[in-house]
Amino acid sequence: MKKIFFLTIFSVLLTSCISTKDLTYLQPNALTKSDSIKVSQEVSKPYRIQTNDVISINIKALDQKLVDMFSTSSGGSGQTQKSPQTLYFDGYTVDDHGNIRVPILGELNVLGYTTDEVRIKIEKQLLEEYFKKEANIFVTVKLSGLRYTINGEINSPGMGVLYQDRATIMEAIANSGDITITGNRKEVQIIRKFAHGFETYSIDLTDANAVNSPYFYIQPNDYIIIKPLKQKSWGTGVTGMQSVATIMTAISLITTLLVLSKTL
Fold first, then answer.
1. CB-based contacts of 150, cutoff 8 Å, min separation 6
2. Contact 169, 215 (CB under 8 A)
3. Among 58, 129, 151, 163, which residue is least crowded by beta carbons within 10 Å?
């Protein structure tokens, strides 16, 4: 009887406890030596602007007063610093037709362009219609932050923003408080918007080869879902001590019920 009892506890512990292999990010595979140095080529492609994106455009010249009329902000284009929140209100939102409205220049179609291509397009129009080369026009075009939404087994679910040009999914997860201990790091789901619709992809963040995935770098408006591990639904605990405590509580309850049934 005791043997069966201990075998039961041991089997439950094996199935309910979460292994460190399920919790460790970017683990090398069996063919990779622990002391080897691996160089991974970045597979991130330049992001192409889509509808609802917000971009920031800054125009400078030798005579800054000449280019202030192209700015939407009260401080003018020569403003050197803007808070991340201000960028949303002073930025240019891409409408459903892929256009932005720039003062003086009018409507510009930016759908499917990279930020560098938009910069070249604006510089060309300014030089052709308003300025000479001697004006030394300098245009900067950036996305006003990488916005993403993350839900599921994450410590801080909701919408997050990373104010940088490029960011990995690891940075997005860290920015949201990391995945909980019951989160499935092997099947992190990403829903990404494209011109033709939405695509869904899963990435295994416990595998070192995840850095080679085209989804390792996030894009604006990505939706990230962290699924729960099976151990969460079993309710036996996520650590050995929690599992033992749960089992002992259950056994104690069963024993009490058996004693009471015999006394009745």
1. 157, 158, 160, 172, 173, 176, 223, 224, 225, 226
2. yes
3. 129
Write out the two tokens for 22: 């399920």
Do the bridges between strand 183-194 and strand 197-203 make them parallel or antiparallel, or are there none, so unpaired? antiparallel
List all residues 6 or more positions away from 58 whose beta carbon is below 8 Å from its beta carbon. Answer: 77, 139, 140, 141
Q: What angle do CA 205, 220, 157 make, to 5 degrees?
A: 60
Structure tokens at 88: 């949303």
Across the 264 residues of the chain, what is the mean pLDDT of every consecutive 10-residue run?
Answer: 48 54 70 52 73 89 82 53 62 91 92 94 92 88 90 93 89 94 92 86 92 90 92 56 60 68 65
Q: Give residue 245's pLDDT.
A: 61
C-beta separation of 107 from 101 below 8 A: yes
Task: Please state the φ and ψ torsions of residue 101, each to the nearest 5 degrees.
Answer: -110, 115
Please identify which residue in the block is written with the tokens 């993350």.
150
d(CA 238, CA 249): 16
d(CA 41, CA 59): 34
Instruction: Sort strands 54-60 and 183-194 into parallel, antiparallel or unpaired.
Output: unpaired
Please give the pLDDT value at position 10.
47
One-letter-per-residue 3-state SS of 56-82: EEEEECCCHHHCHHHCCCCCCCCCCCC
Q: Supply the pLDDT for residue 136.
A: 87
- φ and ψ at residue 129, rounded to 5 degrees: -110, -20
* Residue 35 DSSP label: T
Q: Are strands 92-93 and 54-60 parallel, antiparallel or unpaired?
A: antiparallel
Indicate the DSSP class of residue 3: H
pLDDT tens digits, one per residue of 216-250: 999 988 999 999 988 765 554 555 555 556 666 66
